[in-house]
Amino acid sequence: MRIVFMGTPEFAVPSLEAILAAGHTVELVVTQPDRPKGRKKTLTPPPVKEAALLRGLPVAQPERLRGSDTVQQIAELQPDLIVTAAYGQILPKAVLEVPRLGCINVHGSLLPRYRGGAPIQRSIINGERVTGVTIMYMAEGLDTGDMISVVEVPIADDDTSGTLFEKLTAAGAKLLAETLPAIEAGTANRIVQNHDEATYAPNLSREDERIDWSREAGQIYNQVRGLSPMAGGFTMWNGEPFKVWGCRAVDRSHAAAAPGTVTNLSDEGILVQTGKGSLLLTNIQPAGKKAMDAVEWLKGARLEAGTVFGGGEA
User: Would 269 be classed as within a structural domain?
Assistant: First the structure.
């Protein structure tokens, strides 16, 4: 098949590789523009662009696909199929109608649950035990199209969004390779989604990173691991953000302490009271410093038992 591939992050790279390994021709790779990255704000290409250029594939990077010259470019190519994987923009009708075999998407959840841009992170944040990858035909709505194939992936108790990302990346590429022959032959499934069961996974905001100490310790643990390694959770200490990168929920509780109160400092880390149970902070990042082991930080820190985390603006 002659294929246009559309994707942006590392999640999409193995899917691009699977298409090429299956012997199909990628006529064009469409990805997001280069973005500033890191403290020095160095302009950095997305992983899919890097992978495409290494393979000598043409690349387009419209800031906004709708109304761009790229739409006309795709129309002129007349591909058999468009494959998207975490591209980051909704495809306009003018693009959806181009390929004779349709447009398909490799989505990191078990649809119709977790439609949207952050299904991997939010599945962990919400304490799910199983997620997966769905390959679907694309429609004008947000992840509303008919499903073609699905694979389930368990979520381990210690998975972060980073480790789950790797599992789903591999599972998605494998599923895509297994699904493409049926699409080419015109025999692929079309399973209509039950829209009444739909849930959504909107992109994460700064407020999603704020720790609410009134929640249960297990819920905060899920929040932190769902945000790691990209963002982590944060609370406030001495009027500045105090990031939490690693933690674990424990049953110990200090009945007299309000949520957010530091109840113990030990060779294990910083124990903080929550709405139910306690959270042991093991890897932290005070404002202006690098992430570090909490025990090492405590050797020179002025944090005391009885300190209350939280409040303030970030």
Answer: yes
**Binding-site residue ranges:** 109-112
Domain of 265, CATH number, reads 3.10.25.10
Does residue 46 have a cis bond before it (omega within 30 degrees)? no
Residues flagged as binding site for (6S)-5,6,7,8-tetrahydrofolate: 109-112
Q: Same domain for 235 and 294? A: yes
User: Which residues does 106 contact at the CB level (< 8 Å), separation at least 6?
Assistant: 12, 15, 83, 84, 85, 86, 133, 135, 172, 175, 176
My answer on whether 140 and 264 are in the same domain is no
Arithmetic mean of pLDDT over the chain: 95
Q: What confidence tens digit (pLDDT) does each residue in 118-150 have?
A: 999 999 999 999 999 999 999 988 899 999 999
Region 161-182: mean pLDDT is: 97
Amino acid occupying residue 284? I
Query: Is it the case that residue 49 has pLDDT exceeding 70?
Result: yes
- pLDDT digits over 59-84, tens only? 999 999 999 999 999 999 999 999 99
State which residues form the domain around 88. 2-197
Q: Is residue 29 part of a domain?
A: yes
> In this structure, are 98 and 221 located in the same domain?
no
Same structural domain, 151 and 70: yes
Alpha-carbon span 252 to 278, nearest angstrom: 6
Which residues share a beta bridge with 149?
135
pLDDT, tens digit, 9 for 90 and up, residues 97-110: 999 999 999 999 99
